[in-house]
Amino acid sequence: MEVAASLTKRDGLSTLTGLALWATYNRAMLRDLQGARVHVCNYADLVEHPVEVLTDVAASLRDWGEVRDDMDSRKSSRPSSRSFVETRSSTRT
Question: What is the pTM (predicted TM-score) of this model?
């Protein structure tokens, strides 16, 4: 419904057309991802709680063997995701 409402506001599409587009794109995505490892997160949660969501994503990647523990951002000298989000947020104001 959020996507359909956004398409109505942005493009003037009817709610039914917006829902049909959403369903079409999501069916194609699910078809293309069949058999792939997928971590699903809610966009609003990512925006409101980026550190927690990215920590969950990192845990999934570690569980799948895609990331080693020594690559964990908490042990890295690179800036954390929180500092990135805070920096990006402050530059927008």
Answer: 0.55
